[in-house]
Design a protein that fits this description.
Layout (H helix, E strand, L loop, with lengths): L7 H12 L11 H6 L14 H28 L1 H13 L4 E3 L5 H30 L5 H41 L6 E3 H18 L2 H10 L5 H6 L1 H15 L5 H34 L1
Parallel strand pairs: 1-2
Helix pairs in contact: 3-5, 4-5, 5-7, 6-7, 6-11, 8-11, 10-11
Length: 286
Amino acid sequence: MLRLPRATSREEESALYDDGYEEDDGAVKSQLQTLMYPDKSELPSDFEMPIWDHLEELRERVMAGALAAGIAVLTCFAFSKDLVVFLEAPVAEQGVRFLQLSPGEFFFTTLKVGGYSGILLSAPTVLYEIIAYIVPGLTKSERRFLAPVVFGSSILFYIGLAFSYEILTPAALTFFVSYADGAVESLWSIDQYFEFVLTLMLSTGLSFQIPVIQVMLGQLGIVSSQAMFSQWRFVVVGATVIAAVLTPSTDPFTQTLLAAPLIGLYMGGAGVVSLIENSRDKDQYA
């Protein structure tokens, strides 16, 4: 039977790299080279699986993730009206009325709300299935690095959703209602309203992943913390542009509410990279 350990190819690449690596020249592996050509001591040697077992495990984990997502979507759809009321809360006390402008519009809106909510609810299970499949093929250092990245990414994403719901969305909607006050009555399409709210929440959650990307780049040695801090002027301009693109509204107040946290997250990410670099230097000189 053909036996294919998950780390076989990396072992061969590491051996080839070590053969051509000259210690006498005083060269030191970069973090990226260490990732591509890990030391043999870092490779898992206690795990072996035939290729057909790999495919069978992949099929089982895909089915488990899809089943979890399906159950979550159906559950959220069963409570879709409660979710609609929950998402209407940011403007519920401002006299805004929601209309169904076409037959079946509210039904398809509840499908959309249930689908998005179910996917978000099942995301931890799907993420677990993905991690459980790839972890046996990772090196020891990669396993130590993976857990904080995945945990931090998940926490930041849900913090972004909460920030959007509690602060960003009410501020944007209040601006629109106040601007129209005295001129027109606020009668909003239920479908367009939820498209606005869900797009804003999702884009905010994704934009909160900036520190995770910084930590990954710093861990690989591609960008240093000093380089990140030195580009703060470009970061301010870039955060403003990103906020203008991600926010569905065009008012500068809402864009500023998103740009300010992005700048803070970038600086915080650079600070974390600096701590990682200091810790790495201490380990090298220890």
